[in-house]
From TrEMBL:
Identification of the protein by name: histidine kinase
Coiled-coil regions, chain positions: 198-225
This protein's record includes keyword Kinase: yes
Pfam family, one: HisKA_3
TM region positions: 41-61, 67-86, 91-109, 121-138, 145-163, 169-189
Amino acid sequence: MIQSPPSPLARARAFVIDVCTPAGPPVPLCGRSRRGWVRKLPYVFAWLFTALLLPLTGYVLGREYGLGFGLALSLGVAQAVPLLVAVRRPLLAWAIAFAADLVAAVAVLSEPVHGDWPWPWPPMTVIGMLLLMLAVGMRERRPTLVAVWLATGLAGAALRSLAPERSSSNVWITLFVIGGMLMLIAGALRERGDARRALAEQETISEAERARRTLLEERTRIARELHDVVAHHMSVITVQADSAPYRIEGLPEQAREEFGTIAATARESLTEMRRLLGVLRSEDASGGAGGTGGTERAPQPGVARIPQLVEATVRSGLPVELAVPEPLPDALPQTVDLSAYRIVQEALANVVRHAPGAATRVSVSVDETGTGLMVLVVNTAAADRDAPPVETGGTGHGLVGMRERVRLVGGTLDTGPLPEGGFRVAALLPFTAETETETETKTKAEEDSPAP
């Protein structure tokens, strides 16, 4: 069904409603400033000018313009008190004061001329209207500012034309020009502030998205690397299950079938893992998304290759001192073995990027209880403190990767700058990691246990 376009009257009505609708919630002027004194400034000015203009407006309207005391005082209140409302609702305050100004001008028309005072706006009215127009400019949209500006100018011109003999001054033109300039400047500053706040919010959102994307990339990378670790175990299960009937004499037929089922299930699981690896591979990974060859299928490094890593780092110009137990611990869990190597790799890469030339010490040892592997990388401050780092932006991949690898094995990670300069990375990787469910259960039991 084709809808007919809205009539000019409907469009005009919609425009008027849009112009008369305040922009946003009644947040105080300057209420978003980080400085406390700036947030209080609109209240101070509102109370100060209200205290000054209220008695002066009532006095001048009564004595110089010939209005009665009660009417003059009432109009003075209606013109000055809206300044207090303008702190939160500038458009409403301007509308109240503008209506009071029109009523005062019409009331003055019924009185004889008293001297050559400005017409149609007394000096106090001009000051109040300028302040209100400034407040409107700091809050409202451009169409509303134009409407306020034109309403003020047209009202002044109409009243001036009704009684041109009342005053020789064109104070309405002064209000029209200066008020327009104030609203223009205030509106430009407000739009600039809104743009800066929107940019800051967008940067915050982008930073959060980058951090989330970095975390997901690191987890995907770790999952790809752990594929070989799990695949090795699955392959061992398959070989043992397939060879069991030949290694064990007198095996019942039921047991042979069970071992055959175990081997088939292991091979199926290994196939599914390779498919999962194809999904986790990045687009530029060798062998394609679904390939089976390349570096991602190569054996994963471990603690035994840390000396080679340190040697390569030394050749790049970074002085590194290595302390590794002799002999290396036997039968390290493969996840711990891989995590220890990657943590040392990431820590050395961070030193090269952010503190080139800094003396670095790498230590890998079994902890005192013999239940975990302790990895420690400590570097001093850069040799040339004034030299800029090789990489100033920093994506945070190194620390994110370390945290994820430590969390994977249920260990602990301590990183941070040193008082004398430099940085420290200390990771404890337990040989037997608790699952997250076990950790939560243990924590809950400790919380529920009665205090001694």
